[in-house]
Amino acid sequence: MKRATVIFAITFLFLAANAQKYMTRNGYIGFYSHTAVEDIKGDNNQVASILDISTGDIVFQVLVKSFHFDKALMEEHFNENYMESEKFPKSTFKGKITNLSSVDFSKPGKYDVTVEGDLNIHDVTNKVAAKGTIEVVTGGINANSKFNIVPEDYKINIPGVVRDNIAKNLEVAVTMKYTPVESK
Amino acid sequence: MKKPVKIVLISIVVLGVAGLAAGLFLFNKKHSDLNKVKPDFKIEASIIQKEFEENEASATSKYLNKIIEISGQIQSVKQGDGFASSINLKTGSEMSSVICTFSSSGDISGLAAGSDITVRGECSGFLMDVLLNNCVIVK
């Protein structure tokens, strides 16, 4: 992706920051596929994400290469055959919390939210919506979500012979622990 | 049964079993243990971060998927708390560091911010920071 854009966006976010922005660079996103043939789980612990609590804007960015699998061959197939991570190294989500008013960021507690936005995987962008929770805790904000995606929606071609080994609907789990961005 | 036919049949069975075993071995193969792998590069955290910042494309093609032994000063330690633990290494940039993420079994309880460290890991590229995965502590 265009690094200048990213740097610009980040710089802008930093300049505008006065504890309205929360960030993490070690967030977790994992996906899980269950079929009668086998279970497949990929974990990524290097997710960068920024949450703006004044507007509800939420952005996620991951390197496809940072997804890890228990079996080396799965990781190789994931990168080379399905995600083509050399060609499309990054995946992003840009969206908004649609019911921001139901979250009281000044009061510790757990709130149900809905997030809508554009999910880009494998160079294909789709509108998605997901339910999740925002938990206001001392010193930060935790966010969790689970939703499903269909690989074919992102032009990820899974050959017929192994199609039954991979779930039609992959479960995606998101766990973020945000800390405030200090204003400079 | 004639002897040559027998030999051929036995060979086919033996080859078949060997093939199956090799296939299963490859299918179940785990990641190589980075404690035992020779690094492709040995470099300081601030230098590799600068290379990525100045030219991400060329640094990516140089370092992606390579085993890198990286030295630097620990900026912060993040205990996994159910997820993989990681450390940030100081670089010349205030906003960008080198994040070394350890395998889920990795124990980093002895590490503290401010101390010097060398870790070995697999480079997965650059987001806001240089990212290393499956890290092990060298010293």
Quick recap:
The complex is a heterodimer of chains A (184) and B (139). Chain A has helices at residues 3-15, 72-82, 160-163, and strands at residues 21-34, 39-52, 57-63, 68-69, 90-97, 109-121, 124-137, 140-149, 170-180.
Describe this structure in words.
The complex is a heterodimer of chains A (184) and B (139). Chain A is an alpha+beta fold and 184 residues long. Chain A contains three helices and nine strands. The two termini of chain A are 27 Å apart. The model of chain A has no long low-confidence stretch (mean pLDDT 90). The radius of gyration of chain A is 17 Å and the shape is globular. The termini of chain B are far apart. The radius of gyration of chain B is 22 Å and the shape is elongated. In chain B, a hairpin with a 7-residue loop joins strand 2 and strand 3. In chain B, helix 2 (45-54) packs across helix 3 (56-63). Chain B has two domains: 1-30; 41-137, Nucleic acid-binding proteins (OB fold (Dihydrolipoamide Acetyltransferase, E2P)). Helices cover 32% and strands 32% of the residues of chain B. Classes of the chains: A alpha+beta (184), B alpha/beta (139). Chain A binds chain B through residues 3, 6, 10, 14, 25-26, 28, 43, 45-46, 48, 61-63, 65-66, 68, 70-73, 75, 86, 89-90, 175, and chain B through 26-32, 56, 60, 64-65, 78, 80, 83-84, 86, 95, 99, 101, 124-129, 131, 133-134.
| Poorly predicted segments of chain A | none
What integer value in Å does the Rg of chain B equal? 22 Å
What's the multimeric state?
A: heterodimer
Strand content of chain A: over 45%
Q: Biggest β-sheet of chain A, characterized? A: 8 strands, antiparallel, barrel
What summary fits the major beta sheet of chain B? 5 strands, mixed, barrel
